[in-house]
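--- STAGE predict ---
source: upstream dedup step, 1 unique chain passed
mode: sequence only
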Amino acid sequence: MKVLHLDAKTAFLNGELKEVIYMKQPSSFSRNEQEKMCLLKRSIYGLKQSARLWNQTIHDTPISIRLNQSKNDHCLYTMADNNGVIYVLIYVDDVI
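--- STAGE serialize ---
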């Protein structure tokens, strides 16, 4: 059996936000005394939505190439044909 592993290092930074979220600009970034706000377009580490947005993003990929999500374990995707079986296991930011 051939096994491949992928670790998505910046996984939580790939989710596109659907809500309008502003954050204070970090104090080390500010060049003047005026306080500014940043409109977030993508998720960042520390947001409550980050894990869910990453899960939605990564879930769309196996489904788009016709892998079937297991009803017993939602982290497992499979596809079988005459050449064999493909198993893809996705757990947070690890893909096997």
